[in-house]
Design brief:
- The complex is a heterodimer of chains A (244) and B (305).
- Chain A is α/β, with parallel strands linked by helices and 244 residues long.
- Chain A has one domain: Rossmann fold (3-Layer(aba) Sandwich), CATH 3.40.50.
- Chain A has ten helices and ten strands.
- Chain A has a six-stranded mixed beta sheet with strand order 6-7-8-3-9-10, with helices on both faces. Chain A has a four-stranded antiparallel beta sheet with strand order 2-1-4-5, with helices on one face.
- In chain A, a hairpin with a 2-residue loop joins strand 4 and strand 5.
- The longest helix of chain A has 16 residues.
- Chain A is globular and about 45 Å long.
- With 305 residues, chain B is mostly beta strands.
- Chain B has two domains: 146 residues, no CATH class; 140 residues, no CATH class.
- Chain B contains three helices and 22 strands.
- In chain B, the strands form two sheets. In chain B, strands 3, 4, 7, 10, 12, 13, 15, 17, 19 and 21 form a ten-stranded mixed beta sheet that branches. A six-stranded parallel β-barrel of chain B has the order 1-5-8-11-9-6.
- In chain B, a hairpin with a 2-residue loop joins strand 1 and strand 2.
- In chain B, helix 2 crosses helix 3.
- The chains are: A alpha/beta (244), B mainly beta (305).
- At the A-B interface, helix 2, strand 6 and helix 3 of A face helix 2 and helix 3 of B.
């Protein structure tokens, strides 16, 4: 199996010295979808931000396609093919949906291309492209636009940080469909930070991060059993669908 | 008309060698070209410098352009332009100003515009101000805009001053009759040691009148901006003002909005936000492959678009 991303012995402390990640190592194979789950405060979002270069690890190394990217900054990693979808998408006064998607794609786009990205996230492009990415968009709308921007990048590696956070039940149902479609047309590798069982089920591999390290890793069937049976390992880290 | 004027015209009024519709070009205080149309008459004022522009009732889809250019230092241009907009007309008025100086002498344009909007008329007013040239002389543009809106008339003002003007004091006032609507979109960017003051006073005197005033500004380097707005509701009406500013380096912005409700059914809102560019915005654009400098420029361009 060809590995796309390799993390070696990553450690990260908060500025006040508290350890969040401890000697964490992980590989993401090429063309696979990995879901990282685990209890809140376990280090998942930190890990995602370290991959994107938003946080700088205290020690350890990162490799993308065997190239050492440890010392590359956010922009350099983005140009090499790492995309990052924010847990809380950022809003911009005056920047339209079209502009943001074109910035992501790195070029001006014809309407039909924008339509194809928008329809993948369940939005009608004509209704949205001239709208500003500002506070008039609902939580569900901006989340989908965030996903559309990373899809427009066609990256080798896309990291989604808790895509389900902050959206309502109805938006969640269509979000799952979106991820199922992305899964079926997978081009490049995807890492999703998630608590949601339905997202876990579409993974090629699930990794459990707790107490700043990888506690377990494996195929969904095996991992779902482990997660359901052994809360002491995971600290009740995922929410079952029935909760909705 | 000199070459500097032509360059300024291209920037302030999308001039491409000719204007569509009626126009008057003012160059260093003199008329450099004038054309009236069947429905829009442009005449010189008899008692002081400036124009009287008469737009016939029912005129639809026409544009009148009255750009003013100052192309060298040691000019202090003062002009009074009055617009009489006939009932039920629907027109665009383009009134940009460009100032260019290559010397240490100051160059100033002070345009005093009065608008009289007849019943049911609709005016879109576009005003772009720029300063150019390498001279150290101060470039000043001090516009005064006064508008009276009769019943059910609509005035949309879209004004932009994006750099190059060292000093500006903008005074805008309006009186709104029954059902009249005023929309203002103002954008100001200052840099270096520039200063800009903008002052609005809107009186809503007629039932169901409304104003929506949005001012966006960016103050960079050591520049300083002051925003002051007064919205007075003397009748059942709606008023909304919004003042958003981005500050960077040592830029300073003062905002002082005032709302005065003088009627029980006046609904007035103000929103204001001043701050530097949010770090998250820069991070997001960097994850799309932009450098920090490109991200900042993109955010400011969008904010002022």
């Amino acid at each position: 199996m060809i590995e796309l991303l390799r993390l070696e012995n990553i450690s990260w402390n908060t500025p006040d010295g508290s350890g969040i990640l401890h000697d964490l190592s992980l590989t993401v194979p090429d063309g696979k979808l990995i879901v990282i789950t685990g209890p809140n405060g376990g280090g998942k979002t930190t890990l995602a931000k370290i991959i994107a270069g938003i946080y700088k690890q205290n020690s350890g190394r990162l490799f993308l396609d065997d190239r050492d990217i440890t010392d590359l900054d956010i922009t350099e990693r983005a140009k090499l093919g790492i995309s990052f979808a924010f847990q809380q998408p950022v809003r911009f006064k005056g920047i339209t949906v079209r502009k943001l998607i074109e910035l992501a794609a790195g070029e001006k786009l014809p309407l039909d291309r924008i339509c194809s990205y928008m329809s993948k996230v369940g939005l009608c492009a004509e209704e949205y492209i001239d709208r500003e990415v500002n506070s008039t968009l609902s939580g569900g709308e901006i989340k989908r636009i965030e996903i559309a921007t990373v899809l427009a990048r066609h990256s080798a590696l896309t990291v989604f940080d808790e895509p389900e956070a902050g959206i309502d039940l109805w938006s969640f149902a269509s979000l799952i469909k979106t991820f199922e479609e992305i899964r079926n047309t997978l081009n490049g590798s995807i890492v999703i930070i998630s608590h949601q069982e339905r997202i876990l089920r579409i993974a090629d591999e699930i990794a459990v991060v707790a107490d700043g390290t990888i506690k377990a890793k494996g195929r969904p069937d095996d991992m779902m059993k482990l997660l359901a049976e052994n809360n002491s390992v995971t600290g009740k880290c995922f929410r079952q669908e029935e909760m909705f | 008309m000199n070459e500097i004027t032509k360059d300024l015209l291209r920037e302030i009024s999308d001039w491409d060698g000719e204007f569509k519709g009626a126009y008057n070009i003012r160059e260093n205080g003199q008329c450099a070209g004038r054309v009236s149309s069947r429905n829009i008459k442009i005449e010189s004022k008899k008692d002081k410098p400036g124009l009287e522009i008469f737009i016939a009732a029912g005129t639809k889809g026409e544009t009148v352009s009255i750009p003013a250019c100052v192309t060298h230092g040691n000019v202090d241009d003062l002009v009074y332009n009055d617009f009489f907009v006939g009932e039920d007309s629907d027109v665009v008025i383009v009134a940009g100003c460009g100032i260019h100086t290559e010397t240490g002498e100051p160059a100033r344009h002070n345009g005093i515009h009065r608008f009289f909007l007849g019943k049911g008329s609709h005016v879109k007013y576009l005003e772009k101000h720029i300063g150019k040239g390498h001279g150290t002389g101060l470039r000043s543009i001090d516009p005064v805009t006064e508008a009276e809106l009769e019943e059910d008339s609509v005035l949309e003002m879209d004004t932009a001053q994006i750099g190059g003007v060292d000093r500006t004091t903008r005074l805008t006032s309006a009186k709104l009759g029954k059902g009249a609507k005023l929309y203002i979109r103002e954008r100001i960017l200052t840099e270096k040691a520039q200063t800009a003051k903008t002052d609005f006073k809107v009186e809503m005197n007629g039932r169901d009148s409304g104003v929506d005033l949005i001012s966006r500004s960016v103050a960079r380097d050591d520049s300083h901006q002051e925003y002051h707005s007064v919205i007075i509701g003397n009748a059942p009406c709606t008023g909304h003002s919004e003042c958003d500013a981005i500050i960077s380096e040592n830029g300073k912005v003062d905002a002082a909005p005032e709302l005065h409700a003088r009627d029980n059914d006046a609904a007035l809102i103000h929103e204001a936000a001043i701050g530097k560019i949010a770090g998250e915005q820069i991070l997001k654009l960097r994850t799309l492959g932009l450098t920090e400098e490109e991200a900042e420029a993109t955010i400011i361009d969008g904010f002022l678009s």
